[in-house]
Predict the 3D structure of the following.
Amino acid sequence: MSYRSWFQCMHCADERYPLHEVIYQCRRCGGLLQVEHDLAALSQRSGQAWRDLFDQRYMRTEYPYGSAVWGKKEMVCPAVEDHNVVSMYEGGSNLFWAERLGQQLGVQDLWVKQCGNSHTGSFKDLGMTVLVSMVKQMRADGQAVPAVACASTGDTSAALAAYCAAAAIPAIVFLPKDKVSVAQLIQPIANGALTLSLRTDFDGCMKLIQEVCHREGIYLANSMNSLRIEGQKTVSIELVQQCDWQVPDWVVIPGGNLGNVSALGKGFAEMHALGLIDRLPRLVVAQAQNANPLYQSYLRDFSEFHPQVARKTLASAIQIGDPVSRDRAIRALRQFHGVVEEASEDELADACAQADRTGLFTCPHTGVALAALTKLVRRGVVGPTDKVVVVSTAHGLKFPEFKVRYHEDRLAEQGVTARRRNEPLELDAELGPVRDAVRRALDRG
């Protein structure tokens, strides 16, 4: 069976473009594009047959189908030939049963999809493998693509640099100076990308990168390029696969540029259309209070949307006031009867510390999602017997400064009270004081 996919305008149904064309917006209306698949052809295989095929491939060794993204190749990007796939064996991340944390929050069936357990430490790998593979295919077919570039709050640049390094394709990244962690900054540098640290915020970087790409013929890798969405949507497929193809009641997603909620919504909708699942979950987008344009729009039933200048937040990767994928996200939230909630700096930091005390090691963006979930449980929106999956977008090791400053109680300027701080005890190496310290700790429980 031959499968086809193409770019299509979200608003102009008859406006289509081939995947190898360098285009990000509809030429007719300027709207965002999305990848559409030939569902009639895909439907020739039953939902059960697709589930069996995906289970057969999952995390096995046949290249590239062992990748949790490329194991769904027919539904992701059939245009790329197998030998042009650039894969780091991405996906396959743990669906963590957060039993103890769920008990504390009042949710009996809480799971955390740990997308940060990936090659570069974030979910961005899932989209970047598709985009860079498509660029490699285009170059192999003789198209002139001199480099691939992105603006980033840290994780996108890491993924782009790593996948381009593996494919021997030049990478260029624009980062907002002093607004990414040291761990995030060093990743594209180590992978050889041209790294520009610009004295602006992410939105400023985004405006500039689009202009540079347009003038220089460089391929844009930000999430307005819907090839990324195709890889990221496999999170939805994989998490129901890990639940024996049962759909959770709620999926909670941190929201910045809003590509991720768009991606997961697309994945669930396509699975439903092809019979892989028999119902849809409800979606929650969690935003930091200091960068919450979607939340403000939600309060007005999405009747209007106002970009904002995002204020500084500990959840730096979602410090975005003018999200590119807002139209996609709003469409998904309406389709899935979605909810948008916000979290203050104190709430997100406390949620991280609480989760860490139960065995996780959360990034601040996951803290935003957990704090939002806590509020929804308290209000009765999410019920105690609902099955909930929280999407953790990055590994906590990318944010050591955040963790250290919390436990040293140095986040007061951000409005954070370190209720769960845990500093190391510095003692002389003598039995008496060491034994006394251990006994005091055990007595406290």
Notes: DSSP finds 17 helices and 13 strands in the chain. The mean pLDDT is 96. The two ends are 62 Å apart (CA to CA).
